[in-house]
Design brief:
TIM Barrel, eight-stranded parallel sheet, seven-stranded mixed sheet, 23% strand, binds zinc ion
Length: 544
């Protein structure tokens, strides 16, 4: 039992905005009273629900591919030495599994969503997720280019497609559905892409990216999944792509969806020399579309490594930069590309990208619908979130940073004109309460009675001026795991998974098809529930 006293509590989900009050904890949850609980003096500190990362890449084949392709990053990374309590590991751009847990918890984040899992490598992904300590986890399975689903939509059999999706979610022991460049990654296996939403996907005569998007969104809703379709739109990263992004939202026709790393989808201009920010136009449109949430995918200057299922985009990035490139075609499901990258403030394109992420966070008026991410490690590493929080909260600092950009870049952005400053309560919404709500994790992102006791306590006025870098305490599931910024106790995180209702006879359809087109045994494909060490299963019913 714990009793946190004297701290200023920020709990926007429950309308608490900087009120000094006690927070009591018993049996891993927030309770009304905890008589005789160990007191934690939080005087002079702020008390917040633990952070929730709605879109990050921390486990699975793509991460190991990146670690292997860029050994120079690994050698230069921060070292975590073995202690009686902690495992050794590497920080840096693609931290190793144990270090990932230490770094997230060490910043006050207690739940993460691994946003891209091919079913074919789900087993390995869960093994790595298990090795990420402390934080709770969810994962999204890649479905936007799944050829079983594409073939069924081509044949006009959306009903069977729904059963296949349900079966695949449970096979992958996933929490939700992600679609990356729908149709484009399937086309990439023929060296093509899907640049328009309305033309048939390469190899098909009927099914288009628009059909894939609207059908998947509809299926996710019909299956009653807690998180909406998680969408990486077509034409990521290229000038003029804002039109595709807006067209994508129109294709959804009011169905719920989460738009991933919106920064990479908000550009105007005809080519790289004329690329400019279109965040004002996109934010204005987004503000009216109440069915949508998004995460920022903000960019920070410095080193990064790009990891995405968007194979054609990665090839283009390789051609643009001349940097090394790795590609994986994941059988009938998806793809994967890796390219190391450096965001430079003197580079016009990078300067626009840096501004656009912040602009979207400032121009989207409802903090409950836009969340803080860097699409780690694509736009920057998650452990640099405090730098973005400072830029959002301190307008003078931000404007001074804008003035350092090349004059040409300043003409193509609107960031210098924006005066909004985030309040601490709004920061809690975009880093915890909002993502928890979007993920449908009702026990996360708040400090009301019954919530998981995931609490971060920071000095109100940190010595270095940077909030969130140095938690005085982090409590995970009622246990103190971080003290004075150091990991003191290592707990096992849980994994939330969803079991959607599905016609079990779908296996009779799937098995012979699978044996015809996949290179592994059908028996080796689904992940057994027993392989997950601390699963928490939520069953959902289908409606149609
Ligand atoms: Zn991503």
């Amino acid at each position: 039992m714990l009793r946190i006293t004297g701290g200023k509590v920020y709990d926007p989900a429950n309308g608490v905005d900087g009120v000094v009050k006690d927070i009591c904890i018993a049996d891993g949850r927030i309770v009304d009273q905890a008589e005789g609980g160990r007191p934690i003096d939080a005087t002079g500190m702020i008390v917040l629900p633990g952070g929730v990362d709605v879109h990050t890449h921390v486990a699975g084949g793509a991460l190991n591919f990146a670690r292997g392709l860029v050994p120079e990053n690994q050698r230069a990374a921060r070292k975590f030495l073995h202690t009686p309590e902690l495992r050794s590991g590497l920080g840096g751009m693609t931290p190793t599994t144990f270090a990932t847990g230490y770094l997230y918890a060490g910043m006050g984040w207690t739940t993460v969503n691994e946003a891209a899992v091919p079913i074919l490598s789900a087993r390995h992904t869960h093994e790595e997720l298990h090795d990420i300590p402390i934080v709770d986890k969810t994962s999204l399975v890649l479905m936007g280019n799944n050829e079983f689903v594409l073939d069924l939509l081509e044949a006009g059999d959306a009903e069977r497609a729904q059963h296949i999706v349900a079966w695949l979610i449970w096979a992958a022991k996933a929490y939700g559905v992600k679609a990356v460049n729908p149709g484009g990654v399937a086309a990439w296996k023929w060296g093509k892409d899907a640049k328009t939403l309305s033309e048939p996907i390469e190899g098909y005569s009927r099914v288009t990216p628009a059909m894939m998007i609207s059908n998947l969104a509809q299926i996710v809703d019909a299956l009653g999944l807690p998180h909406p379709l998680h969408l990486h739109c077509n034409n990521l990263g290229v000038p003029g792509n804002v039109d595709t992004t807006i067209e994508t939202t129109n294709v959804l026709e009011g169905r719920r969806a989460h738009l991933a790393h919106l920064q990479f989808h908000a550009y105007g201009g005809e080519d790289w020399s004329t690329m400019r920010s279109e965040s004002a136009r996109l934010a204005e449109h987004f503000n009216r579309q109440k069915n949508l949430t998004a995460d920022a995918g903000a960019v920070l200057f410095g080193d990064a490594v790009t990891i995405t299922a968007d194979g054609p985009w990665q090839h283009l990035l390789h051609e643009l930069t001349g940097r090394k490139w790795g590609n994986l075609d994941v059988e009938n499901e998806t793809g994967c590309g890796i390219v190391p990258y450096v965001y430079k403030d003197r580079n016009l394109v990078n300067a626009v990208q840096w501004a656009v992420g912040l602009e979207l966070l400032l121009l989207i008026d409802d903090p409950w619908r836009i969340f803080l991410t860097t699409d780690h490690p694509n736009g920057g590493c998650f452990w640099r979130y405090p730098e973005i929080i400072r830029l959002l909260m301190d307008v003078e600092f931000r404007k001074a940073e804008v003035k350092k950009l090349p004059a040409k870049a300043q003409e193509r952005i609107v960031l210098g004109d924006l005066d909004r400053q985030y309040t601490l309560s709004e920061i809690v919404i975009i880093t915890s309460a909002g993502p928890a709500r979007s993920l449908g994790l009702t026990q996360k992102g708040h400090l009301g009675v019954g919530a998981d006791a995931d609490v971060a306590i920071y000095p109100e006025k940190p010595d270095d001026g940077l909030l969130f870098t140095y938690p005085r305490y982090v409590i995970k599931g009622g246990q103190i795991v971080v003290e004075e910024g150091e990991v003191r106790a290592v707990t096992e995180g849980r994994e939330f998974i969803v079991h959607p209702e599905c016609d079990e006879t779908i296996e009779e359809y799937l098995r012979p098809l699978f044996e015809k087109v996949y290179t592994i045994s059908f028996e080796n494909y689904p992940v057994d529930l027993e392989r997950l060490r601390r699963p928490e299963v939520r069953a959902t019913g289908a409606r149609r």
